[in-house]
Amino acid sequence: MHVPMVRSAALQCDPTGAAGCPLTPGQPAQATLSSVGESHVWVIDLRDGTPFLVQVANPPLDLRLYAYGPDGSLLGVSDNPGSASEELVLSATTSGKYQLVVDSPRGETSTTPYVILLNLVRGEQNQPGAADAYEPDDLPDLASELVLGDPPQSRSFDRGDDTDWDYVNLEAGTHVGIYTVSTGCDPMLYLFADDATTLLTSDDDSGPGLDALIRFNVLNSGLYYVEAISRSGDPCDQYGLGADYIEPIPFDAYEPDDSPALAKPLTFDGVPQSRTAHVNQDVDWVVFPLAIGDRVRIYTTGDCDTFIEIFGPDARTSLAQDDDSGLGLNAQVDFDAVLSDTYYARVRQYGSLPCENYQLIGVRR
């Protein structure tokens, strides 16, 4: 099986954690099973009825692949002998986050990474459409220039697996938005560094409807690459692709709070703390004392896709975590203290994307 080059230089999250790492269609990822009994969790966000193919390619040891639905039900297992590749072809039974788990049935380890790849299965309904004026542009070397402030480029996905590449010149210290404008399409955007390989950030639905919006704070002047794909795997007759300067998301009143040493107090009185994720990969830390037997709940509200993790007194030992148990895409964690001590919690956004506003709340149960 031929597997494309892995684009990301390194994982931005830990696949050994219960929350796992996001896996994007058409974007291979890699990881190493380096400890005995270790397993990796990969998370995919799918809509109801979407057929998908998962492949674990060129494994350096005997691996096993599981797929679980949003409700935790087992959907399929691939357990080929030896170093044969693993493969599952399934359909999403409902909209939500699915988990793929990779482990070694014999507890083997290796210093060589395996590659995991998710592809949406193209159906007969995905018939070719009309190519746009920027074709061919399916590779970075064929990219057109995306000019800040210009009207959106008129684009199409003439095939379900069509990709559109642009390059854009950005200046350090600026805040830019790269966005799509469409009706009935489901575009997804990726932003790469000047090597067109190092993935900096991505977005699916942060714009209106199903449109994508990447908010990016430019740290280094230079050339950047933008890739657009059809998230649904369907052709699209027309969508707009544009970029412009935007106002930065403001710091919230609790910044700086990006580390345990800068954590701000959280009280369990039900009073919301108004927060923002003002930059990519922003994290918000809070600290709170608990007595033995205290039963508390930490949760968020708002339009952000939050993830909450509670840590012990060393701010390193993970004690509890949650992604979507609250309303909508909000996280909610219930925690019972078994020791009287100081505890920490960290809030991050799924995919490490910026978000304009969410509320962090603590209550006693």
Write a short abstract of this structure:
This protein is an all-beta fold and 365 residues long.
Write the layout of secondary structure elements.
Layout: E1 21-22, E2 29-31, E3 39-46, E4 51-57, E5 64-68, E6 74-78, E7 86-91, E8 96-103, E9 114-120, E10 144-145, E11 153-157, E12 163-170, E13 175-182, E14 187-192, E15 199-203, E16 213-217, E17 222-230, E18 236-245, E19 264-265, E20 273-277, E21 283-290, E22 295-302, E23 306-311, E24 318-322, E25 332-336, E26 341-349, E27 355-364
Parallel strand pairs: 1-3, 10-12, 19-21
Antiparallel strand pairs: 2-9, 3-8, 4-7, 4-9, 5-6, 5-8, 11-18, 12-17, 13-16, 13-18, 14-15, 14-17, 20-27, 21-26, 22-25, 22-27, 23-24, 23-26
Report on the architecture of this protein.
The chain has 365 residues and is mainly β. It folds into three domains: 21-119, Sandwich (Jelly Rolls), CATH 2.60.120; 140-245, Jelly Rolls (Sandwich); 260-364, Jelly Rolls (Sandwich), CATH 2.60.120.380. 0% of the residues lie in helices and 46% in strands. The protein is built from no helices and 27 strands. It has strands at 21-22, 29-31, 39-46, 51-57, 64-68, 74-78, 86-91, 96-103, 114-120, 144-145, 153-157, 163-170, 175-182, 187-192, 199-203, 213-217, 222-230, 236-245, 264-265, 273-277, 283-290, 295-302, 306-311, 318-322, 332-336, 341-349, 355-364. The protein is globular and about 65 Å long. It starts with 20 loop residues before the first strand and ends with a strand. The model is unreliable at 1-11 and 123-127 (pLDDT under 50).
